[in-house]
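User: Here's a chain of 658 residues. Predict its fold as tokens.
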Amino acid sequence: MDIVRDEYGELTLDYILYFDYCANFILIILLATTLYRGMTTGRANKVYIEMLILGLLQTSTDIFSIVADRMGPEYIEFKYATNTLYLLFHSMSAPMYLIYLLVLSDTDHKLTLLRKSLFSLPFACSFLVLILNFWNQKVFYFNTEGEYIRGPWFWVLYLSALLYSIFEIYNVFRYRKHYGRDRFFALFGMFPLLISALAIQLVQPYLLMEMFANAIGLLLISMLVQRPEEFIDTETRLAKSSAYGHGMRHTMSNGKPSTVIVMNLMNYSSLREVLGYQGTQDLIRKISDKLIAYNRKSNDEAVLYYLGDGRFRYVLDYRHLDRADEVAGALNKSFKTDVKQQSMELNLVCLTCVIRIPEDIRDPEDLFSFEEDLDMKYYTGEVLYAKDLYQKSRYTIKRNIDSIIENALATHQFEVYYQPIYAVEEQRFNSAEALLRLKDPEHGFISPEIFIPAAEKSGAIHKIGAFVMEEVCKFIASDEYRHLGLDYIEVNLSVTQCMRNNLADEIIHTMKQYDILPDQINLEITETAASFSQNTLMDNINTLTSEGIAFSLDDFGTGYSNMRRIASMPFRIVKLDKTFANEQHNRQLTIVLESTIQMIKAMNMKIVVEGVETAELVTQFSKLECDYIQGFYYSRPIPRDEFVSFIIEHNQRKQARR
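Assistant: Prediction complete.
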């Protein structure tokens, strides 16, 4: 029997502790499963674990305090100690939940010194009155019979909890869009659960429901908020790419300072080929374990992510920004150490880059685009910095490229340029390559390296391809073209275009519309496109070839060619990639070049060398009996009118010399 009195009267109750026992059981299971799942990194996970531990302490001391209250007056010190501990832990639960919400909404960085002081004030008052209670017994006391009686200052504890609850409800509603429906339901659900439990206790005071309701609330949070299966990769124990995207978007929208350390394995594909699927998974797990161990040892409290395909992220928040350079250097160094896997010593080629937010990048889509661009061309072996690489205008364009392309098609902002091709034996410009250019009113000239991949992804490439073909056919059909003495114009086809079922019919229709002869057009496909074995590609090539249209193989030497397949395709011209021109002093590559030229010649194909910029290279490739030369040495790609003037001037000059 436990007698409870307050300043207004007294009640005699038999408290039922079963709900507290159940609460303890639920909290122990939640704590064990959270630790087992590896949800220990990141502030939200850590605060959630602290909430579970606090809940266990709160429930346990509630049980001990009730057991103590049933003891006789001779245990008065034990009674005071257990009840004070229970009330202390109980007073901590509300501010702890508010901290969890602030961390979850990524707004904890907004707590200035003044705000932290105001934040701590209600709990400080509760703590103070509980300490003073040992001397003045104003919060609670025990009478001479050992009966528990609430004092006049007990309302301070209620007021403290009420203030924190108001802030918590405001936070949940303020960031409800960020949380999403399920998370909002779980986070807000704490309040009706606890209110219902307190209401039941008012009607049936012997039913101790509050701790049980708190445990159920934490269970809901585990199921709907923490959700390890959604945010944590079970293999690596690191957060998933979905969590990274969600977290960085919210961090940047809140203006929260942080530093992203990018770690991309540049040789991931090669490692995958060597190790196989399971071996690669074991390697990635080994790297993840090293990152987790470093994070714990250095006490960075960083959030670690694995985005797949050998891409790791180590995100430091605003409290550890000064360690970014040190951490990046240490991590980059650790990747340079060979890793033993399947009895092999593996060399990891890791690109490490430091991105400071918001100093370097302010927009999440720009961040993701920048990370995608971090490829082998940037790799130096040293730590890279976004401040040295990032160009805001480039990523603003990439973010809006689909609308830019759509607008360009509607308002005729695309223009076809032409780059002359020099015939070595004839000593004249006999052809040209049609190249598309885009000049946006706001952003100026936009590189094809940006808008072509975007157009392929969106499907706009088909409209663009049709536009280029029509413009080229118009040009060939014009009177000015007839006086240039050119043999043909080369038109590029992308991989995506080649996969279109009716591509051949569309090209043939456009050429017939302008009375263009088959030998006046030469179609280029890249080595990558040629490596595809889809029936659609071959059907298009066969149909166009049967009409007398010739093909060129572009960018030869940039991929892994199936020579048997290339030899079986109807290429009239092979265009050597500019790599051969850029590496002319590389003796090994020169040997490859000479052998390649002999092989192509033996197959009765013509050779075009791209990227030639010096007279020395013109002489070198001429001696190697290359048929055509294309590059800045002669001309950059130029608009149609300039191209016409260029050809007339140079070809007439050649004729005059003869």
